[in-house]
From TrEMBL:
It comes from Pomacea canaliculata (Golden apple snail). SMART domains: SR. It comes from the Eukaryota. This is SRCR domain-containing protein. The keyword Disulfide bond applies. Coiled coil: none annotated.
Length: 245
């Protein structure tokens, strides 16, 4: 089915990221994130005036609950508007398996990228770049499940939070609240509140970090060599596997 009726979309959050809000004949609702993917997000962001976009599952909080107007969009990524895509139907959706809103991160040049520490080790703060702006991540609920997803998405077999990270503020901060189950393929598949710039890490300061491992051992991680399963030819002249404490 396609949306031929009059509708408007906007974002709940920042001007470039948030839950996709649909106003249908004056009534606001959201899209269930079931089967929501990057192709759907690309079309939504294009409709909002951006060149490209990526999906994420927007965490549905109690104070922001609104009806699900649609779900299971099947955009190819070439459509101009969400209304041109096939989807599950139009009207209040009674069942939403994920119970999350379909979210987007819109951009014109660069989307979301990340690395651990300074890119030369397998342990450190999570650094992310959105639209070319790098910064550390403030997440008051950051935990081992989040770190595990981050590490596995970079080619490691497991990971956990890094205990040697302080709670001090940094000059460049991205604020978020991620809720990973631990089996997601990437951080963007985890339920998330937002990606937004922050000046301070409050009220419960916690900087996101990870200590990545491969088969129970720490593995060096560099920008040139990002797949732990490959055999390196050199790593600054030395390649060390450090047993975890």
């Amino acid at each position: 089915m396609r949306l031929f009726a009059e509708y408007q979309i906007s974002l709940l959050g920042e001007s470039y990221t948030g839950a996709v809000t649909v106003k249908y004949y004056g009534l606001e609702g959201h899209i269930c994130s079931d089967e929501w993917d990057d192709a759907d997000a690309q079309v939504a962001c294009r409709e909002l005036g951006f060149a490209n976009g990526e999906m994420f599952n927007r965490l549905r909080t109690e104070e922001q609950q609104k009806p699900f107007w649609s779900s299971k969009f099947k955009c190819t990524g070439r459509e101009r508007r969400l209304g041109d895509c096939n989807h599950a139907g139009w009207g209040q959706i009674k069942q939403c398996k994920s119970q999350h809103y379909a979210g987007v991160l819109c951009y014109d040049e660069q989307g979301l990228s990340f690395e651990v520490g300074d890119g030369s080790s397998a342990a450190g703060l999570l650094n992310i770049s959105i639209n070319g702006k790098w910064g550390v991540v403030c997440d008051p609920k950051w935990n081992d499940a989040n770190a595990r997803v981050l590490c596995r998405s970079m080619g490691y077999t497991d990971g956990r939070t890094w205990d040697d990270v302080g709670t001090q503020n940094a000059s460049a901060l991205w604020g978020t609240v991620l809720e990973c189950k631990g089996d997601e393929a990437s951080l963007k598949n985890c339920a998330n509140i937002f990606w937004k710039t922050s000046e301070v890490c409050l009220p419960k300061p916690r900087l996101a970090s990870a200590q990545c491992t491969h088969d129970g051992k720490l593995v060096p991680y560099t920008r040139e060599y990002k797949t732990a399963s490959q055999e390196p030819t050199t790593f600054q002249g030395v390649w060390k596997f450090l047993e975890m404490a």
